[in-house]
Amino acid sequence: MQWRIKYLNGNNMKLIRFALISVIVIGILITAISSLFPSVVITSRAVEVNATSAQIEHCLSDLSAWKGWMSDWKGQSVVVHDRVANVGTQRIELVSKTDRTIVLNWIATGQAPYKVQIEWLPLKEGTYVIHWSFEQHVRWYPWEKFQTLLNEKVLGAKMEEELQHLTTCILSN
């Protein structure tokens, strides 16, 4: 037993103490930097479309109609039941619907849930702006805060692509 204690004295003990203190300081530094990021992140995109409100509502209000314009839904198992769609590892729940807005809870495995809102606002006669936003609330954990940095790049580009598909779907009805 004495020979084990002998090896933890002197320089070896200083090295272990330095490593332990360094890990703690780096952890505190990363947490402090991540606390500067917001806890609520909103990613939004909009597109202008020449259509009627009824055409837009047809493609948006019924989750089973989303198969016609959501590219991710085409290659995956999609189960739509009432106001809920299960797409692969995602669950989309229709929370509320008005004549110009739908609100959804979008839950993806391994991420904080998103509150999704799609609204179509009249711009001029026969022209609407479709505004699509994802709102995510994250906890204080550094890995969740750093993950939100990718939302604008990854999710924003995907939203733009899907809005173009939605425009095609609306104009074909």
Secondary-structure map with pairings?
Blueprint: H1 2-7, H2 11-34, E1 40-50, H3 53-61, H4 71-74, E2 78-81, E3 84-87, E4 90-97, E5 101-108, E6 114-124, E7 127-137, H5 142-147, H6 149-172
Antiparallel strand pairs: 1-7, 2-3, 3-4, 4-5, 5-6, 6-7
Helix pairs in contact: 3-6
Order of helices and strands: HHEHHEEEEEEHH
Number of strands: 7
Give the uncertain stretches in residue-range form. none
Query: Which structural class do you get from the secondary structure elements?
Result: alpha+beta
Share of residues in helices: 40-55%
Q: Report, as a whole number of angstroms, the end-to-end distance.
A: 82 Å
The overall pLDDT average reads: 87
Widest sheet: strand ordering: 1-7-6-5-4-3-2
Radius of gyration: 24 Å
Q: β content, as a range?
A: 25-35%
What is the CATH topology classification name of the largest domain? Alpha-D-Glucose-1,6-Bisphosphate, Chain A, domain 4
CATH superfamily of the largest domain: START domain
- CATH class descriptor name of the largest domain: Alpha Beta
Tell me the quaternary state. Answer: single chain
Count of helical stretches: 6
- Summarize the main sheet: 7 strands, antiparallel
| Shape category | elongated
Number of domains: 2
CATH structural architecture of the largest domain: 2-Layer Sandwich
